[in-house]
Amino acid sequence: MSGPGGSILVVDVGTSGVRSAVVRPDASVSGEHHLPLLPDTPAPGLVQFDAARLADAVLAVARATLAECGPVAGVGIANQRASAVVWERASGRPVAPAIGWQDLRTVGTCLELQAQGIRIAPNASATKLMAILDEVDPDRSRAEMGELCFGTVDSWVAWTLSGGAGADRLHVTDTTNAAVTALIDPATLRWDHGLLERLRIPAGMMPRIVDSSGAVGPATALPGGPPVCGIAGDQQASLVGQGCTLPGLAKATFGTGGMLDQCTGTGPGPGAVHRGEAGTFPIVAFRVGGRTTWGTEAVMLSAGTAVEWLRDDLGLVTTAQESEELARRCQTSGDVWFVPALLGLGTPVWDFGARGALVGLTRGSGRAEIVRAVLEGVAHRGADLVEASEQDSGYPIATLRIDGGMSANEVFVTALAETIGRPVEISPVLEATTLGAGLLAGVAVGAYASTEELAGTFTPRRTVEPRGSAPERQSARERWLAARAKAEATIPELSGISF
Length: 499
Fold this sequence. Notes:
By secondary structure, this protein is an alpha+beta fold.
């Protein structure tokens, strides 16, 4: 086994499992171990998980990777964002099921708060934390006494890795995760104590906010106790993992849903956490040495979900991979247009009452045409995100870098390049979150001089260039946008809801 050098152990907690791996100073990834850990859905709209099982899985995969790869210089954490965990400070036991980021049980609370002038989206952590406290500590006495801790998943992982008891444990979160709780002052990136008081959330249960890169304490539950020194939410970790650490650089992750994140630099941060005119949200991309780098995020609610629909509900394909093979059987969709609004539309229109649409069907529309239309429809939603990001950020996106499960589908990637009219660079790793957390921790241990240097670590697996003419591209775009308009406001009552 080699010495630690600048190697980093990364624990990467996604929505459906826990992964660990070692990121080397040359940006290679090895020693990957994974355990599935699906959330529970006890009722429609409810998504929760067992934080104790998550902690066990974190320790199991981390120790397995270290046993395979040897000592490391530090530990990085990447995580699903905005999920809420509450546990006892003394025992470390969770007091209730953790509430996942997709959970919608607090929609009514969000609407009530909106009427009071407090705008919080149901996917943020704030109302999830309120819901847990209402269940286990309705008068807030335990939280006021300092008996309870709150954290997003990164906080829970850091607490778990730091072993020990009581004061020896790390109770921290980084700026990228703190920013999506809806509980910080965006001007200072500190907890908003006035808002906490209005929401009846005792400030003493909140974690300490730290930089995304920098040693915060030892992972004493692991051999050698390497320092935890890199933390980032999954999309920000993917942004860094694809080298997008300079203003204007952008990546899109096409998984179950889709997120396009663009780095906008270290100028003054946005004065509010609400979305821009084109439907993107300001985000903290990362903070290093007290210096914050900002970005924008555009959101697609359905991406790979549309392929799962083809497979699981329509039976048009038996595997997600077959969608590529079937779509290759036809050169075009035959003027069939699909709008992936199965869960509503995010950026740029933010219409929760929109629903999926399949427009232009004829007797000649077969399986291949429909499958191709679905892949091209997701590509057009990708174009929505690119256009909105450029408008809100003011930075052009010359080349789009992509990762996520759909980045392995060549028909989709080709359609994306054609639809956005610019090159698409495919990440060398399918999921860049692990790599990004490792790179941030690598800055902390001196493997890299700065986050600016990380921009040079990205080498695409392949670059796909657009091939068609601009007039053809514009015509197709107009046809698809007409189909999108038909999908909007399908359920007017839901379309009237805005967060």
